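Hi U.,

Before I forget, here's the chain from the pilot set. I'm dumping it here mostly so it's searchable later in email.
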Amino acid sequence: MKNFLFYSFILIIIANGAMAQGNQQGCTTVSTPSGSIVFLGIDYSLARFSYITESAAQVTQTMPEINRLFISEAKKYDAGRLMGKNVVKVDLNYVISVTSHLPADHIIMHEDYGIGENDVKDLIAKYPDLGEGIGLVFVAEQMNKKNATGSYYVTFFDMKTKEVLTTCRRAGRAKGFGLRNYWAATVHNMMKNWI
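Structure:
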């Protein structure tokens, strides 16, 4: 009986390790595209803020403020350095412009929420002409106050053809004071823990 329990425990550990590795596929510096990359910031088009007490107006004001941290606090929010990529340009114009057109009644919800890779591909396919090269955008999924996490699809795509080269779901812990800093921490922690 002891041997059975011991081997069962070992099999569970191995299975969990394999699942964790499977979840990381496409999510490493080595397995994602290299070369000169244009970083486009965080696209909140599909995002929902769950279990929060703030208003939709406060949230829509905060989203561009978080994106602007990639410029105003470039050293801390340096996607290239934190993710081991050659980011040659940071262009936030598109993702910031999208924020002003989001329907307020869809931003906040009081339940869990998720998107999938096909949702990300459909979103990227609708992007305007952003030039040529490899684009990197964080497609925000859910800012979950109950779990104190923010989840994103880290997405590399061909900016000319809009073909998604790699996309993978990653999350970061929320912390800090104020709406902007609390949710900005999720993207910083997600980048900081990139492998």
